[in-house]
Amino acid sequence: MRRGRERLEAEAGGSRWITRSWFSRTARADDWWAAFVRGDVPQEPRPDAPRSPRSRAHILLAALGRTAPVLSLSQADCAALAPLVSEWFARGATDEAVVRALTVGLPSPVHHPAALVRRRLTDKLPPEPLPPEPPRRPLRLLECAECGVPGRPEALPGGLCGACRDGHAPAHPKATLPASTIRARASETRSEMALRRHERTPA
User: Fold this and answer.
1) Range of the domain at 155
2) Same structural domain for residues 103 and 144?
3) How far is the C-alpha of 58 from the C-alpha of 78, rounded, in Å?
4) What's the pTM value of the predicted model, to 2 decimals?
5) Is 60 exceeded by the pLDDT of residue 42?
6) Residue 49: band (very low, low, confident or very high) from pLDDT cuts 50, 70, 90
């Protein structure tokens, strides 16, 4: 567990610092906590997450005949066409939008359902969406678990400052930081983040 502070952005503008306690069920090394403060720790998938034997695209195609019986597809057809439907999903299309594109205005009769579905999935493919905005990196500060003094992750191995590890804790533990100190530390953090973004920007 680590204690610290994090700056929250308000929807109406402005921000405020709040005190947080972060807990990990798995024992973490100090370099992991340093990455966490920077916002670089990836989300780990749940090991017990259920896995479906068939994809969302395959299920949609297999059920297509319920909406339009003339578009009933075989198992092989569904497997072959599923990647095309998955591309629609990757571009933000809903199940209803795909079914509508495949079933509205069908010719009569339909001689080759799989060929017609393939043609519509290809010709009516929606445009690629605009790239999402990069996520904001969190602004976080760690504090000593004993005395509450703030510090960089590398200065708090095991969650303790040097004074508390040596048994020389401050006389007034967990004192509230002055607002000027918090502002100065926040400004320093923002400057470091801006420098990192500048270094990553191609010339």
Assistant:
1) 2-39+138-200
2) no
3) 6
4) 0.43
5) no
6) very low
